[in-house]
Every structure is written in C-alpha cells, then in structure tokens.
Write a structure and sequence with these properties.
This protein is about 50% helix and about 20% strand. It is α/β, with parallel strands linked by helices. It has one domain: Collagenase (Catalytic Domain). The chain has a four-stranded mixed sheet. Strand 3 and strand 4 form a beta hairpin. Helix 5 crosses helix 6. The protein starts with 5 loop residues before the first strand and ends in an 8-residue tail after the last helix.
Amino acid sequence: MALKQLSLSLQFGDIAQAARHRAALPRHWVSRCIRHALSSDAQITVRIVNAEEGLALNSSYRGKPYATNVLTFDYEHQPVVLADLVLCAPVVAEEAKALGKTLRAHYAHLLVHGTLHAQGWEHETSAKEAQAMEAYETDLLTGLGIANPYA
C-alpha cells in the first residue's frame, strides 16, 4: 500500500533543550510517522511548543488549565486532511521519562495519535472507540518499529 502525500510544515517554538527535541524529530521521521497514519493526502503543520504556549492553547480551545501532550486542530478531513498538531515539548519529555520510553518513540506515538484525531478518530466518547483507536495506533507504530505504547 502506497503512503499518502503530505505537505508538512515543522515548527519549533521557543523551547528549552531545543537541540534534544530537534534531534528526536528530524523532518523525515515526522513525515514518515504522519504518512503511516494517513488515509488521505494531507497538509499538516506540526508545532513543538513550550509549557506556556501549550497551556494557553489548551486553556483557550479546550478549557483545560494545563498544558497537554498533543492538541489536534482539524479543519478538513476529505478529500485532503488539513490540520495543525501542537506538541508540548516539556510534557512529552516528562511523559517519555515516566513511561521509560525514548523521546523519539513517544513523539512518534503522539504524531500518529494526533494524525488519527485529524481524520476523525476519537477515544473520549466511548470505550469501544478508544479500544479501536488504541489497536490501530499500535498496528501503525509496529509498522514504524515502535513498541506498543499501551503495554
């Protein structure tokens, strides 16, 4: 199966340990992770942010008073996926450490997760949808050489 086409904008905000996060997110790897999760061609911006920007966005758009690991802003699903994925570098780094995963592997999981959200996948509305999304994520990540993030 051929991978879908992707127009990718990869942006890094003012983050601490920028070199570490840039090393974990080379453009070709970000593109590969996203393309493995696409069912349609896409135009996606990935922005890596600090805790302050992550908090501001999560508070403004979800009413949550904390920075979260990934936010997905989807604008169109068909025929082309149009979306922004915002990943909060310090949250991702803390989670990776707590989970005993590499930063690169955790970013891969969140890129796949966010890309699925951009295509309408959901996990907060029912247990059945959550199980289906987790199973699909696991399959996609296995194809990228990443272990099951839920194990």
